[in-house]
Amino acid sequence: MTLKISQHFDAGAIEVITCRQADDIHVRIRKDSHATFAQWFYFRLQGAVGQVCRIHFDNAAQCTFAEGWRDYRAVASYDRVNWFRVPTTFDGQVMVIEHCPAHDSVYYAYFEPYSEERHLALVGTAQNSPLVRVTDLGNSVDGRDISLLTIGTAGPAKQKIWVIARQHPGETMAEWFVEGMLRRLIGAGDWAGDSVARALLEHAVFHVVPNMNPDGAARGNLRTNAAGANLNREWLAPDPVRSPEVWHVREAIHAAGCDMFFDIHGDEALPYVFVAGNEMLPGFTPTQEAAQRSFIEHFKQASPDFQDQYGYAAGKYQEEALKLASKYMSHRFGCLSLTLEMPFKDNANLPDARVGWSGARSAALGAAMLEAICRQVMAVRD
To answer: Of the N and C termini of the chain, which has fewer Cβ atoms inside 10 Å?
Structure first.
């Protein structure tokens, strides 16, 4: 069987230089649509069963987060359901995957993908719950739906909690996180009758946008939408044409109000789970600082995967801070507002040699964060 690499499927992205012999395949990671960001890859290799494949990413050093390739291992799958890590090296210039496929068809990706079909199934399954209402907020640049899931019923004494994910579409761990959170919140599967979810929905209503950037997700972009906009730099003044995804969601938040806000992401370089707060903002109050510290302590108790020793420096986004979602929300509503980051690599505190950080671990973290939110809600109530 002739060697073949293909990428014309949902979220597929790669440029093939040469694919004539298994041990000397050369590819390039392509740029996002109408943008210069380059990091996401996802492709299918056929015809290499039983052969030692060496796939050279010739432009790895020119990618947006080249340092992210150090100590990184790509993921692979034969069925796009079960993903595992494969040997990957980076010499500072070229990244190489070395793997001997057990089947003639194998997929390689930057991280475990979260497909458009799975996204639609997640929204459809959620709305089967009497606790959930699905609202269409509007269209993306390419005309895809921007879906809002509201869990629970609003009330004058209930806290309004917003969770958004995948502003950066290649950070697929974010939607895996939301899936795990939603399953616990609506009592799906093993979470039926969960006391944390029941207590939360007595005192709070959740507004969740599982995929802020459906166009970028489908196109195989790392950070931008179909127009080349980095949505997490659009919150101060979103453009209804260039960044309608942010414009629609921000309008919905302004209309409903917000007491807590969480923006879910992945970090290319740091092998840890952490949050980025808002202590650098002018007007950040002692009350907000206490709420931020309290939540971090609650989250550490809820999940051993979460830590606060490693993360971003407080001044990282000083100049453009209010363009970012969580910082805009903190400033606008004076609420607890955080960006959660998960690794593309593995959690160095709890490494898993076979799968590293994964979709399942992201989902488990999403479910665990509800415990931290519950404690925070109860503390405010008391």
So the answer is: C
